[in-house]
Amino acid sequence: MTARLAFVESPVQLLNVLEWAHARAATTAPAPGRGPGPAGPAPGPPPETPAPTTTAGPGPSPGADGLTVVVLSPTDPMSRGQLRRMAQLARDEGFTVHWQEARGGRGALVRTLRRLAGPLRAAERVIIGDPFSRYVQLLLTLFGPRHLTVVDDGTATMEFAAQLGAGERLVRWHRKGRLGPRELALAPVTSMARRRLAPGRARTVEIFTSLPVQAPPGTTVTENHYTWTRARFGPPALTGGADLVGTSLVETGVVDADQYLRVVTRLARTHGATRYFAHRRESAEKLHRIAVETGLQVVRPELPLELIARRGPIGRTIVSFPSTVVHTLPLALSGTGVRVAVCAIEPEWLRATASPRAQGFLAGVAGTAAHEVDRLTARATSRTDRLEFG
Which of 35, 114, 231, 291 qualifies as a FRET site for 59, CA 20 to 30 Å off? Predict the structure, then answer.
């Protein structure tokens, strides 16, 4: 079996590695009475079939053979907790998972590189979830894979595909336009990594995504339909109300905190929401304000929201700001009757220090959401306290 190595730094990345392996096994499995067929895009979501709610699969996944997952552990507690639970799910599916304290203090980088050098050289395919990660970029500059797969880690996949296709330098969409001292120092690493992330005569590049991306020249885009998630979990029990999905746009310096709190209050009141599913990067201070000032029950999910929603119970309506979930939840919850709605980010909510690219990028995320997703607009002004839906 060809050696395959996956590097993950977030719970969603690990979930999508499992989805990739499941889809890969499905497209390469021989049909009864036939030999193995060619690999290709995964088929569309099949009709919903009841499956028992569970936290582990019925047995080893056929996609687990030959795939080793390396968790480059982050430092924040919420991400680490979700990753540990996702790592156990992956082990239950038969995957080999190594937990690497890649940021664990002095000397961690050298220890990590020493441990991973051999497996990286031997890997026929490398799977990554965040092409903007400085850690992953450094690994790619040292060891260029022959076959590379990029799986979703949020809406950054859309920006990565656009930048790769346009030949631009890799920079996260919410960063300022000018390079800071740290970015200037790491510019040679980023430049080399970009070449290693691009297809060529000695390298194939696949993007495995649930997002609407235009395939850069020479790359292959494979659709992620969340078939593993739907096969392993649910369908969920539905509550009569609505749930709100939080975002870390305040923490990344894009949206003003007071504006965000006002809009969350309006959305909760308009939709009769009772729960607020926090993003793993939301600060404790902001979540405390939301709980006290809105009366919402703040929930810190133990797993990616796609799995939490699929396991249930979940509201009949899920309201989110522009994020990956407006693309993934309709797939994960296909056939369950759950309504997903996206609330656009208005220009007046943005902080003065937000990147000039922020408004356009967020509008694109909301505008390209699945056809099943309702569009909401919430206009916050000093003279009105109402929501407009369109």
Answer: 35
